[in-house]
Amino acid sequence: MEIYMEKCSLKVEAVFSPHAVLQRNKSYTLRGKSEPETKVSATLLDAEGVGRAFATTCSDKRGYWTIGFPAMTAGGPFVFQVVSGKEQLLIEDIYFGDVWVMAGQSNMQLPMERVKYQYPEEYAKGTSSIIRQFCVPIEYDFSCERDYMEGGEWIEGNPKNIPRFSAVGFFFAETLYKKYQVPVGLILTAVGGTPVKAWMSKQALDSFPEELEELRLCADKKHVEEVLETDTIREQMWWRELDEKDQGLKKDLSTQMWQPIDVRKSWDNLEELREPGSIWLRTKMHIPSRLVGKKCRLSLGTITDADQTYVNGKKIGETTYKYPPREYWLDNIAEELEITVRVVAIHECGGFTRGKKHELIWEDGTRQPIPDIWEYVRGCRMKPLQEKTFFERKSAGMYQAMFAPLHHLAIKGICWYQGETDAYEELRYPIFFYNMIKDWRQRWRENLPVLFVQLPNYTLNDSANWIRFRNMQRELLYIQNTAMVVTIDLGEDNDLHPVRKKPVGERLAMAAFQEAYKEKGCWESPVIKFVQRENNSLRLYFDYTGEMLQIKGESLVPLGFELLFSDGSCFCAEDIASIAIDGTTILIWNVKKSRITEIRYAWNNSPAMANICNDKGLPLSPFCLPIKYL
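Now predict its structure.
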């Protein structure tokens, strides 16, 4: 509980609010505001009310103050008693443990709410009360680097709060807590769709003139306001025109000429449906008598772009953009159902995402598939809506508002899950990434561990360059005190936001065991080190193999390796040579063709055949290496 006197001007910075976790074994600062140029004192009290540390200072001319404290070992709860003049604050339920910054874009931001059907038990029970999260308010600032966090709050990992936790962060923290039994604090600073340049300071972008010019332009608040206003008006006019033209909103749809359609298939091949606009779809279902009257969930996967969904004429849900899965609940389900979906394609051809299941799911786990053949009728055609300007994707804006204020905090390390937006920037990204990490470490004045997630398997239209981007991410491991989590086996071919976040979090924690906690053994995925010629054979050497490389699955030989030759041909290694694991290496011999130019592994958007892992079961990272003719 935080206690304020009436009209109290004494405050602490939001990251020091009740339930905070502060970094153990490092000196730290407490910051806040008071009346300008007044004395401020702070005492750290233990559970018995005994003072464990005391310090005093004076606020500056603006009223800001900072008080330094010596390091504390893990434990709690503690209370900060802050006094200035006649004003007093008690900041309760403070713990010392390990604090991790969880940064990046949507797959780091994705909350437990989105994976509750994947992990129902974890979602229902929550976690330890001393696993906590602080969510940095989503804002951008192009005018200056903020040095004070005004908003946000710490939440405990109880069932009430679990829906708001980062899913990756939740499982990362749980794994750390199970091993070390110390409080874990997560500081979530992640925003969907943001490129790496958004999380870099002006100084880190110094060698990128285009990005600096973008920052200069966005620093003009009038420009930003005008663009936002123009975008808003354009969107409102587009939606207004859509609703005015949509025949499905004007006429009785039962009198229209409905055409059959297989909703599993792409609409790109249907000329009538290629253009943006609205499309109405319907299907009918009979529900077995034993399930009638019960509560169930209508699951339609993801849809491009927006939808409004009705059952027997009653609207049961709507979603305004393409990424969230459509999960709508039905109470007291009838025996006969007519499901109607108004799909609105905004920027491009719309449709149901291929490969997703369409079904009704009852609370007892019973499932009934929805027919694949529906009927459709065009509501109206529209010109594509021009994409709005996402200022959160502009240079330095997120860093200055959401990252810069964190540098005064003592932390254990940083987890970074980002790259989807930058998949076509594999040439510039290494410089971006290096500059960003170097800048972060300089500002923290510490060589902090940075653990990053390699992009997973994914095959939709926007995945064309992910293969090369993953290979580039592997090469980032030259940066000292970094680790890469391989997720090539954890994605979903048809979803940018895969729900299997538990193993992602666990693998990040394993990387932390090695890089941050210096545990003995091998806790990271194997990565290619080099290829050596041995007579007419190739021997592949790796880092992070553990005691021995292993094969996952039923195959007796390594799969997923390809050999490229000087004539442009490419063959699976097992089809043109002998290949086997030899301890911590892989040997390829008896090659039936000469002049090999490259060897690669898992070189596919969804490399299902790749089957190499280390003794911890962690998958080998995809790679492509040029080699001299053999």
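Residues 1-6 have pLDDT under 50 and may be disordered.
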